[in-house]
Amino acid sequence: MKTIRSNVHYHNGNEPETDMYSEILHGLRQEKKFISPKYFYDKKGSELFESITMLTEYYPTRTELLILNKFKDEMAHAIGSDTALVEFGSGSSEKVRTLLEAMPELKEYVPIDISKDFLYQSARALSMEYPHLDVHAVSADYTDKFEVPELKSKRKAVFFPGSTIGNFEPEESMKFLKMTANFLRPKGGLLIGVDLKKDHAVLNAAYNDNKGITSQFNINLLNRLNRELLANFDLEKFQHHAFYHAEKGRIEMHLVSLINQTITIGNEKVFFTEGETIHTENSYKFTIQEFQNMARQCGFTPEKVWCDDKNWFSMHYLVVE
């Protein structure tokens, strides 16, 4: 009987440094309550985000894909041969397929995602489409130190689409980019999507879609806390709120308490006043120069940048020595 070689491998890249319960309570006990956006991405949250990316108002995914399709050959050439492609926050691995089309010689792909079930499902599907490719699915929070399996390729290139870099605070972005530069040495590269500053109406519409999918995505965070932490949030008593903060150059997403209420999480109680919010996400926007200046401070050399015709979105290729 012929043995069929499996080309998908699963790895645990790190264990959380703090448990979810402690981290959530810490954020909700602050004067300005917050929850890290990484907790959006349970299975339902990941599926909702995939739906968001297909919305008319949500330009980033559509525009980034246009750039990828138009310049994929140039990007593949910049990344070069004998390189393992590592994707941070791989999700459904949809965008990387465009890049893979232009890289038929690629031998190793390493998707890294915090949502283990969604990661494994996506990796399995991709491995069947690209049977020549060794797919190493790594379950990890890529913002912390993580381990990847030993790779055969001489170099690594990180693919980090979606302008997820905008979700970090400025000091967190610097820390993340420095960590990524260390991960890529020697002579690796970073292909990263960066959302650009633009008309405020376009930005506000992107995070307040008419179908209410972004609202469901935000509210699902509370549903996850109810399920996993035995909380008792009444989803009808919180409302999605997103807006562009021009002075800070970022979209802010919040969950607004519609009444005075006390929530129980495990054995702890958290009080909300009417109108008080949980700050769930920031999405910083940049100019090309702002982003490149930050990258240089973190050990990268900007090599190429590609944009759409409206200059709404950019993709940068950065290298390290």
TrEMBL record:
A single GO molecular function term of this UniProt record: L-histidine N(alpha)-methyltransferase activity
Histidine-specific methyltransferase SAM-dependent domain segment(s): 21-318
GO biological process terms, semicolon-separated: methylation
E.C. no: 2.1.1.44
Domain of life (superkingdom): Bacteria
Gene3D superfamilies: Vaccinia Virus protein VP39
Keywords assigned by UniProt, alphabetized: Methyltransferase, Transferase
Keyword Methyltransferase: yes
Name the record gives this protein: L-histidine N(Alpha)-methyltransferase
Species of the source: Fictibacillus norfolkensis
